[in-house]
Design a protein that fits this description.
Blueprint (H helix, E strand, L loop, with lengths): L23 H32 L1 H10 L3 H28 L3 E2 L2 E2 L2 H23 L1
Antiparallel strand pairs: 1-2
Helix pairs in contact: 1-2, 1-3, 3-4
Length: 132
């Protein structure tokens, strides 16, 4: 069908800028996606520190000094909150993304989420033991 000769206008659905604020599910989704920005910036900060570590002790110490700036501390507090929120929402999402069956029965979400928190606690404890 040739649309050039048609007098009908195509349907264009109006999309307002605040569409995601009208539904709690979409609001949570957008906030979660927004936290990934802080997580990725924090990853870049850590990679920058690794680069400075390779460049020698003076460069690494200068990087450590730059992290003592109040703005850097504020960013790290915000990044920590964003990472915790991101992890919490990911742990809650994982059973929906990966459905686990035992035989014909679907394993409920709660044990899967709890297992992730236990694994996080164990790995964190191991890291603290190794570092200390």
């Amino acid at each position: 069908m040739n649309n050039e000769n048609s007098k009908r206008k195509p349907y264009v659905r109006e999309m307002k800028k605040d569409w995601w604020l009208k539904n709690a599910f979409y609001t949570g989704y957008m906030i979660r996606e927004g936290t990934s920005l802080f997580v990725s910036i924090y990853a870049v900060v850590l990679m920058w520190g690794l680069l400075r570590l390779v460049q020698g002790p003076d460069a690494f110490n200068a990087w450590l000094e730059s992290l003592q700036n109040p703005l850097a501390i504020l960013f790290h507090v915000i990044a920590l909150a964003a990472c915790l929120f991101h992890a919490k929402t990911w742990f809650a999402l994982a059973p929906k993304a990966m459905r686990i069956f035992k035989g014909d029965q679907l394993i409920p979400e709660k044990p899967i989420v709890l297992a992730q928190y236990v694994a996080l606690a164990v790995v964190s404890a191991l890291v603290l033991i190794i570092v200390a």
